[in-house]
Design a protein that fits this description.
Protein name: HTH cro/C1-type domain-containing protein
Organism: Protofrankia coriariae
Pfam families: HTH_3 (PF01381)
Number of strands: 2
Largest sheet: 2 strands, antiparallel
Strand content: 5-15%
CATH class: Mainly Alpha
Number of helices: 6
Length: 104
């Protein structure tokens, strides 16, 4: 297979959104992905490795990996640690659709 034959991630996701089970899980994990994107942006803008960020925040490096992979919803305690250590702010709403990150 040639690299030119590969689909972009957005194309694959859009195709998968036709599947109700995938769509439900994708929507359920939106908050975790938003947190992961903010963490990754902060880390790269500050030239930090995952290990560096873990030390600053007071977490283990594998926890940073799991957060950046959006493998699970972050806890309130974890969000508080991230915010205290980095200045990142997380504003969210909890509604029938789940947890949604909102702009401040």
């Amino acid at each position: 297979m040639k690299i030119s034959d590969l689909k972009l991630l957005d194309q694959v996701i859009e195709e998968q959104r036709e599947d109700a089970e995938f769509r439900d899980e994708w929507d359920r994990m939106a908050f975790a992905r938003d947190v992961a994107n903010r963490m990754l942006r902060y880390r790269t803008e500050h030239g930090l490795s995952q290990r560096d960020l873990a030390a600053i925040v007071g977490l283990a490096q594998p926890q940073i990996t799991r957060l950046e992979n959006a493998d699970h919803q972050p806890s309130f305690d974890t969000l508080a640690k991230l915010s205290r250590a980095t200045g990142l702010e997380f504003h969210f709403e909890i509604a029938r659709a789940g947890v949604v990150l909102v702009d401040a």
